[in-house]
Automatic annotation (TrEMBL):
This is ATPase AAA. It comes from the Bacteria. One of its GO terms (molecular function) is ATP binding. It comes from Lentibacillus kapialis. Residues 212-258 form the PAS domain. PROSITE patterns: PAS (PS50112), SIGMA54_INTERACT_1 (PS00675), SIGMA54_INTERACT_2 (PS00676), SIGMA54_INTERACT_4 (PS50045).
Length: 678
């Protein structure tokens, strides 16, 4: 009996080999096979022409008169064993389906989608296509045995092997060649079994994996933190929705990339190298404030990568900003600018000039000056003159503030931090001052442990609420002020030296009013106008006021004007209207000269001068100096008895006040005038 002959027409020989194997698998070697790849092609005695359909290879042959054999265009299936390679691709993977003709590529895509790979994103490709797709959008190329046609720049290629003949074609062949299905049955059983096995695996695997991935992704996407997993090779294998939203990076584009390409600003290197956790860190990326944590992932004890979780705290800051805005509306704003700063003495003009320069820098300003000299109004003017002027100005006065109050006031507290804590907690003043300035007034009065906490905030630039565990990064400019002699307090151990140096970056000294009496007229005018008081101060009153030593400085002058506005009946105050303590201190020049002569005539002028100088050094402390301390400060050798006599003389000349018991000795204003003349 003649063996049936089939002519197989394919464009590539590889496909012929596949068809040949398929036919041999079903029909054994009973059928004779010919191919267009083995010329000259014998067209005689053909029983069937089986064409792959590509490029209409069969057309010329079919038209040849001697060929009467039927033509069968192959329907093609897939090598199911190779499909497993597609299971590795995650949902949404962008696949370039490479074929030698566009219609074949479309057909292959349709088949893969029907088989359940519809969660992949296919783009058809054939070298003859007119408009090439953007290869940057492609993750992997998939082809059926046409690896040579894959565009060069593709990193990953999956070759599913040549598409085999599908069952319908094999049955058709059997029918045309008069083969019974019965004969083919045992062969097709293998084929079908294979198909069913792979089909089932495909469905369960893709379904389970799909479900599992969807489930995990849903969890990771529901997490309000960015989550990135970087494997031990430094490759990103997980990038959740929040990470994508925070960083504005497409998750699919990040996957498979090295972290150094995608999130190079993250401190991941340290974690990968050490294979250890990295404690919480705050850093800035693209103008965002991120708080990040890194933990190693170990599977069966082997390090497999780093899980990076991070939060964008910029939006926390925005929420806080909103609270702050409300607080600002409630009064956390400044009233004074440099224009409101009255006084045209050279000393004040210079001080203002310096303050304006300091305002422009970001460093901490440390204002020193006696009480009432205008430290707060300088602090406000500096804030107004700085680039933070649109932010809040928050003032804290440490005088008389208790330790526990200071802590919760400064740093806020978390919900439930203590009995009576309001729901939702409360932001502290550092938080309220975000993007603005915090003014730490009377810092010398801050309790020691608050000093330590302030130092921490200044160093770390973040605060944690009392009883809370959330860290809020702070972006606050600090201005501190004191009327105390902090250097003295440091030696006493009541002020932290490290905090002092931290604060003392840009020192600014506000001179006492007694040193700039030329400002008195301008200040009087300023207060009269501000209080809408109609009064004129005659020259003799101004002169008397200029001679007074103003221990309470500008605040005292302001108080005096309020007092005079109440008691003065006429157009302006007279000398009689001034309080007695002001007039009493009004010492004439002649009187001062008399005292200077008296001290000079004792022959001990340098000793008197040194005593007064030591007392001046101590002027910023509330308490006077004891005799022992004074003696130890002096370089002139002097006995205890001699010092007591000298102090008595100075007291009789009203140059010093000697306190009873432990109040110590202080220099008076008259003492200062005398010192200037000695
Ligand atoms: N140059 C000035 N021009 C106008 N007003 C001033 C000036 N200096 C001080 N004042 C006024 O004097 C008062 C005291 O000023 P401020 O509170 O700033 O002093 P301070 O040095 O901070 O005092 P303390 O050390 O007691 O806190 C305020 O009412 C302020 O308006």
């Amino acid at each position: 009996m003649k063996r049936p002959v089939i002519l197989i027409l394919t464009k590539e020989i590889g496909l012929y080999n596949t068809f040949r194997d398929n036919i041999r698998d079903i029909f054994g070697s009973y059928i004779q096979l010919r191919s267009n790849h083995f010329p000259p092609v014998d067209l005689g005695g053909l029983d069937l022409i089986l064409s792959s359909g590509t490029d209409n290879l069969h057309e010329d042959i079919v038209e040849t008169s001697e060929v009467t054999a039927p033509l069968l265009i192959a329907n093609r299936s897939i090598d199911f064993n190779r499909l497993e390679m597609l299971f590795e691709l995650s949902e949404g993977t962008r696949c370039l389906l490479v074929s030698n003709a566009m219609d074949v590529a479309y057909e292959s895509i349709a088949m893969l989608e029907r088989l359940g790979f519809d969660y992949l994103r296919f783009t058809p490709y054939s070298p003859d296509m007119i408009e090439l797709p953007d290869m940057n959008d492609i993750d992997v190329a998939i082809t059926h045995g046409l690896v040579d046609l894959v565009p060069e720049n593709m990193d990953r290629v999956i070759d599913l092997g040549n598409r085999s003949l599908d069952l319908s074609t094999l049955f058709e062949i059997a029918k045309v060649l008069g083969q019974t299905l019965h004969q083919a049955n045992h062969m097709t059983m293998d084929y079908v079994r294979n198909f069913v096995r792979i089909g089932r695996e495909l469905v369960t695997a893709s379904q389970n994996e799909h479900d599992m991935n969807t489930y995990l992704e849903a969890i990771l996407d529901a997490v309000q933190e960015g989550v990135i997993f970087v494997n031990q090779e430094g490759e990103i294998t997980l990038f959740n929705q929040e990470a994508s939203a925070i960083l504005g990076i497409d998750a699919q584009a990040a996957l498979g990339e090295s972290w150094t390409e995608v999130v190079s600003a993250f401190p991941i290197k340290q974690a990968i190298q050490a294979e250890e956790s990295v404690p919480r860190q705050t850093f800035k990326v693209q103008g965002l404030h991120l708080v990040t944590k890194m933990n190693p992932l170990r599977l069966n004890g082997t390090f497999s990568g780093i899980i990076v979780t991070f939060q964008d705290v910029t939006h926390v800051q925005q929420l806080e900003q909103e609270i702050r805005r409300k607080k600002t509306e409630a009064g956390l704003t400044t009233k004074y600018t440099f224009a409101d700063n009255a006084g045209d003495s050279n000393l004040m003009a210079q001080t203002r000039q310096t303050a304006k320069k300091l305002a422009r820098s970001a460093y901490t300003v440390f204002i020193k000056g006696e009480s009432g000299t205008g430290k707060e109004i300088f602090a406000q003017a500096i804030h107004e003159h700085s680039f933070r002027c649109r932010g809040p100005f928050v003032a804290v006065n440490f005088a008389g503030i208790t330790q526990s109050l200071a802590e919760s006031e400064l740093f806020g507290y978390a919900e439930g931090a203590f009995t009576g804590a309001i729901r939702g907690g409360k932001p502290g003043l550092f938080e309220l001052a975000q993007n603005g300035t915090i003014f730490l007034d009377e810092i010398g009065d801050a309790p020691l442990n608050i000093q330590a906490a302030i130092l921490r905030v200044l160093q770390e630039k973040e605060v944690m609420r009392v009883g809370g565990n959330t860290i809020v990064p702070t972006n606050v400019r600090v201005i501190a002020a004191t009327n105390k002699n902090l250097e003295h307090m440091i030696t006493e151990g009541t002020f932290r030296e490290d905090l002092f140096y931290r604060l003392n970056q840009l020192p600014l000294e506000i001179p006492p009013l007694r040193d700039r009496t030329e400002d008195i007229s301008a200040l009087i005018d300023y207060f009269l106008e501000q209080k809408r008081i109609q009064m004129t101060f005659p020259p003799d009153v101004i002169e008397t006021l200029s001679a007074y030593h103003w221990p309470g400085n500008v605040r005292e002058l302001e108080g005096l004007i309020t007092y005079l506005s109440v008691i003065v009946d006429g157009p302006g105050p007279t000398l009689d209207d001034l309080p007695g303590y002001i007039k009493e201190e009004n010492v004439s020049s002649a009187e001062l000269n008399r005292i200077v002569n008296l001290l000079e005539n004792t022959g001990d002028k340098p000793v008197f001068k040194e005593i007064l100088q030591c007392l001046v050094l101590n002027q910023n402390t509330d308490r006077g100096i004891g005799r022992h301390t004074l003696k130890s400060m002096m370089t002139t050798p002097i006995s205890e008895g001699q010092l007591r006599t000298k102090l008595d003389t100075l007291k009789r000349c009203a140059c010093i006040q000697i306190g009873i018991k432990k109040q110590g000795t202080k220099i008076t204003r008259q003492g200062r005038h005398i010192l200037e003349r000695l």
